[in-house]
Amino acid sequence: MLVAKAPPTTNRHLLSWVEEMARMCKPDHVYWCDGSDEEAKLLTEEAVTDGVLIPLNGEKRPGSYYSRSNPNDVARTEELTFVCTPTKAEAGATNNWMDPEEARRKLAAIFDGAMKGRTMYVIPYLMGSPDSPFAMLGVELTDSIYVVLNMRIMSKIGTIALDRLGASSDDFNHGLHSVADCDPERRYITHFPQDNTIWSVGSGYGGNALLGKKCLALRIASYRAKQEGWLAEHMMLLEAESPEGETHFIAGAFPSASGKTNLAMLVPPPEFAGWKLRTIGDDIAWMRVGEDGRLYAVNPEFGFFGVAPGTNYLTNPNAMRMLEHDCIFTNVALTPDKDVWWEGMDGPDTDLIDWRGKPWKRGAKEPAAHPNSRFTAPMENNPSLSRFAKDPRGVPISAILFGGRRSTTVPLAVESFNWTHGVYLGATAGAETTAAITGAVGRIRRDPMAMLAFIGYDAGTYFAHWLSMFGRMKQPPKIFLVNWFRKSDDGKYLWPGYGQNMRVMKWIIDRCAGRAGAMETPIGYTPRPTDLDLRGIDASVDAIAAALRVDPDEWTKELEAHADWFEKIGGTVPEALRLQRRLLLASLKAELTN
Ligand code: GTP
Ligand code: SPV
Ligand code: MN
What we know:
This protein is an alpha/beta fold. It is 29% helix and 22% strand. Helix 2 (37-49) packs antiparallel against helix 5 and helix 11 crosses helix 16. The protein is globular, with a radius of gyration of 24 Å. The site of sulfopyruvate (SPV) has 9 residues, from helix 7 and helix 8.
């Protein structure tokens, strides 16, 4: 049993805020996390006693635990996520907005007494390397032991964060979280960017509850980045080293459940022997212009909260090795010998217990693991981790990729003509929706820079901020649009994806170094099949050609749809992007009349 101790800080801003929140939530105990291994052991034991965690097979998954969420609480709920700026215009057309006073009143009524009979855990946490100027501090108050144990993997918690805060600073994110009664009718994820505050109630899952992730490191940080002239983005980060020892760092923004973790852990095919791809981050990048005028990126997280289904030794062997020990698995299926299973793994050889806790017969139609089931893995478990992963200065970025799940229209890869065109490709990127957010799956929605749900202010102003970054850089990264998910008319993926994406990465690197060829099309430079290294690929010439194709009719429709998208965002869409759209459409039409 954990014994509550005196608060391990004299910071009066922190002490009085914790006191005030405790007065509202009325927990039986307030426990300050120190982040020690001893504490983690005790918390884990308590979570097991309470039935929050189930220990997994000690031989097959040492140090790992299994958890099931409330079946009504399995993904981020964007419709219940709010940006609470003084005016609706500041939040813009793409965010749900609530007046800050109204939001506080509404949520205070739910938080009132919500922690009765429970413990309030105080989690001081650090995002980013402790010795990095990039680092941000937060304190999350939560009544969920599951949240504490996940935050412990995803950030640096406890004494290390308090030390950095010091005795007098009030520069920390004020995060209040309660699962309360986990009622979707009383579920709100609210952000107060001006006050560096987050209040989240009614959900215990992922980005709704681990406040350091989407809430702080993207929504609040993007607001701050706009004020301070940097970028907080939903991007994976990887290091690519060629056989000759040339190293490039690449950032990639793909919407939720669209391939960031997989790309960041890519294992090159045998034809690419000597290439080394290493992970820096799989979800979030903070990027600042360095003194040499290049764009430097850090991953502020310390772990990976990744999609389980589809992960296997063929698609992502590094992830499978990362998951061998000391992980938390949420909403996957359980084998009779207490190991985990999900769709995409071999087997199963036996019947299972599904993510709801119900018996599941082999071959049943319903998935055994929830499509948005996840693993939480410590960064150091990753066998492909880059030695630059926690470099306090960050890594200089050669290329930025934007992408999405598009079964039509968007070719395998397109290089932008210039920065403005690249920002345009990001701002108009569309994607078919996935299980990572609640709602219909497979519908196309615009997801600019994969940040639709994470821009902490007006989207048009965010595009203008992206455009303005160009003037701050001496050596800006090149911008590319990629799509691993294009399908044939009979619904098959045209491109084999996963490790095979190395072939596209190499073309991108060679374009950055001025070595590879491309074809100019009305929408950008695309690789011809001869520009890609396709030695040994298991795909037909026709399928590859179809994956690369720019179809004028599809693109005419696409560019017309962009007009509706800009219309939706409203008057803040930069003129340079509106004109870019008209220029692209005009070029396309001019070509069609030839
Ligand atoms: P979030 O954690 O939600 O931000 O997702 P993510 O962008 O990191 O996505 P992730 O890499 O976990 O991939 C999500 C799903 O897409 C998994 O089921 C993968 O197996 C699948 N996937 C990833 N890369 C590819 C690819 O190149 N081709 C195909 N066809 N599927 C892929
Ligand atoms: C995403 O949905 O983009 C995720 C998972 O990375 S969550 O942490 O739930 O936001
Ligand atoms: Mn994500």
